[in-house]
Amino acid sequence: MLTIIFYAFIGVIAIQLFYYIIVFGKFSFGKPQKSTPKRIPISVIVCAKNEEENAKKFIPLLAEQDYPDYEIILIDDASSDSTLDIFEEFEKQYSNVRLVKVENNEAFWGNKKFALTLGIKAAKNEYLLFTDADCYPSSNQWIKEMSSQFTMSKTIILGYGAYEKVAKSFLNKIIRFETMLTAIQYFSWARMKHPYMGVGRNLAYKKEEFFNVNGFIDHMKIRSGDDDLFINQASNGKNTTISFTPESFTFSEPKKTFKEWFDQKRRHVSTATFYKSFDRMQLAVFFLTQFLFILLAIILLAFQFNWMIIVPMVVGRYIFTWISLGYASNKLREKDVMYWYPIIEIVLIFTQLNIFITNLFSKPVHWK
Questions:
Q1: Domain boundaries along the sequence of the chain
Q2: How far apart are the C-alpha atoms of 245 and 178, rounded to whole Å?
Q3: CB 186 within 8 A of CB 117
Q4: What residue stretches are annotated with the Glycosyltransferase 2-like domain (predicted)?
Q5: With a threshold of 0.70, does the pTM exceed it?
Q6: Would the N or C end of the chain have less CB density within 10 A of its end CB?
């Protein structure tokens, strides 16, 4: 039996190295990105529900972008606080701000996709750039950097939505590492000509891509997925590219408690079950081999089976993965999380296992 486990362990490491070196290497070891500034008209779309405090802080940063031709579409999704009042003040203050008011609709109550659809239809420009009301751009060059990746053929741009750093917080390092790893995955697969997801905190696409797939209609009943399910459906190797210059990042405030973050990840994982078959499979294989690597290594070392071979294999696996993730973390300005990499990886593996089991017995809560 231990011999079988040993050969299974070799297979698990081989699959892991394929992911980290071949797939993730497309991003990790790729050349720095070049930007070709464009002057195409852009519509920045922000959907908000009960975001009065964030709206006060972050909408002015969008209005101060260094870009010659853009509008800001502010969508108030039937907020019960003063978000709508704040948006109306911004509309008066800035000439390029337009407001879309969404009333409660029994058929689409609490559905962000319905609100976004109204905002997309209201946008006067063909090129759309999305972020959330609780996000802010890393610089006043955000629109310029994201739009610079549009070409005649590349009509979907996947950006990086980072989280703020919190000093002396291990939870913050876990959140940022997980966010970084997710971005490495979807950036790498996009470079492999097989894009499968993006994040609504930083995403751009041409309006025609939205209407080519009839918007969100195929997954309107699924409360989440206005970003990743749409990209999973609309993107392909020809129309999708990535943007990862530091000036193109957006930032959000991370969750402050483990429970808040755990609930957030439950929503994300539940949405992934609606991805295309290949995408579900490759994500499942990646997670399964991560888990089996830890489990099989513990079993083999506990029984001291070929430990002089097992130990170098474990160390070698960590060296290769550390190098791959290290190069990527440098590009995404997340180098500090790599100091904790082995510990964070183990925590994430068992957290994801817990999320999977929890989601089997109860459904996560979605849009506010």
A1: 2-27+278-361, 33-257
A2: 19
A3: no
A4: 43-155
A5: yes
A6: N
Q: Is the dihedral of CA 326, 283, 226, 68 positive or negative?
A: positive
**Distance set, CA 304 to CA 1, 3, 295, 300, 309 (Å):** 14, 12, 14, 6, 10
Q: Distance of alpha carbon 21 from its chain centroid, rounded?
A: 21
Paired tokens of 161: 């939505």
**Contact between 168 and 139 (Cβ < 8 Å):** no
What tokens appear for 93 in the block?
Answer: 């203050």
**Is 140 buried (19+), middle (13-18) or exposed (0-12) by CB count in 10 A?**
middle
Helix (H) or strand (E) holding 93: helix 83-93
3-state DSSP percent of the chain in helix, strand and coil, to 5: 55, 10, 35
Distance CA 175, CA 351 (A): 12
DSSP state of 335: G
State how far the Cα of 199 lies from the Cα of 228, in Å rounded to an integer: 6
Contact (CB, 8 A) for 265 and 366:
no
Number of CB atoms found within 10 A of residue 3's CB = 9
> Are 269 and 359 contacting, i.e. CB atoms less than 8 angstroms apart?
yes
Fold of the domain spanning 33-257 = Spore Coat Polysaccharide Biosynthesis Protein SpsA; Chain A (3.90.550)
DSSP notation for 43-74: EEEEEESS-HHHHHHHHHHHHT---SSEEEEE
Tracing tokens 């999977």 back to the chain, one arrives at 356
Among candidates 103, 159, 118, 107, which has minimal Cα distance to 135?
A: 159
User: pLDDT (tens digit, 9 = 90+) per residue, 74-125?
Assistant: 999 989 999 999 999 999 999 999 999 998 765 455 588 999 999 999 999 9
pLDDT tens digits for 127-170? Answer: 999 999 999 999 999 999 999 999 999 999 999 999 999 999 99
Instruction: List, edge to edge, every strand of the sheet that includes 135-137.
Output: 135-137, 250-252, 161-163
Structure tokens at 148: 């610079």
Q: Whole-angstrom Cα distance, residue 210 to residue 120?
A: 9
